[in-house]
Amino acid sequence: MTEELFREDATARQCEARITAVDAAGIRLDRTVFYPHGGGQAGDAGVLRLADDTELRIVDTRKGEQPGEIVHVPAPEADLSMLRVGSVVTAQIDWRRRHRHMRFHTATHLLCALVPHPVDGCSITADYARLDFHMTEPLDKEALTQGLARLVAEAHPVLHRWISEAELDANPGLVRSMSVQPPRGLGTVRVIEVAGVDLQPCGGTHVANTAEIGPVIVTKIEKKSAKTRRVLLGLAEPA
What we know:
The protein is an alpha+beta fold. The protein has two domains: 3-93, Elongation Factor Tu (Ef-tu), domain 3 (Beta Barrel); 97-235, Threonyl-trna Synthetase, Chain A, domain 2 (Threonyl-tRNA Synthetase, Chain A, domain 2). It has three helices and 15 strands.
């Protein structure tokens, strides 16, 4: 298993790690700050820096075939012949891209607080965020934008903690997503709490306070089906 440093500290931009495997799928490390695509959030990009300062560009991060395995996907032009199992590298994420993921992901938690309906689809990228709500009534774009601005300005702390699977089973209402269920089998589940606003299982990366999100707006609301309303978010300007 890869030690997932981003679970406890989403602000860690780099770490030293040891190469454990290299194959056609990509590069595996014993530990990483790179978040793998999952839960609707895009995987991280960045570089692996070798001992001689050679940089290998990483264009995506994915979950491997084995539980807990993370694969760093190199750029197509990358020369992997220089890599050796056991060698130490510095794994460094593209921070601007990651921080936008963090801002958007936290904003979707605020949106969940404003729209109290189950979520049946989610996408979080560096350019936009999308949530699909299982509901029939219409949504007001301006009202949601104003609600998000209020929650951002109120500067709510964003915290994470771990609860037991038994605790989650005792509180099934914590799970808002219909399409992505919390991973089972490890005994504990990670939850994200936006203080006084939202609490739900989530494995993604988030900012430490809603004020860090910056100006966020609802760019579009779509009726995707009779029981699905899609809300798209954009960042009004860099935070």
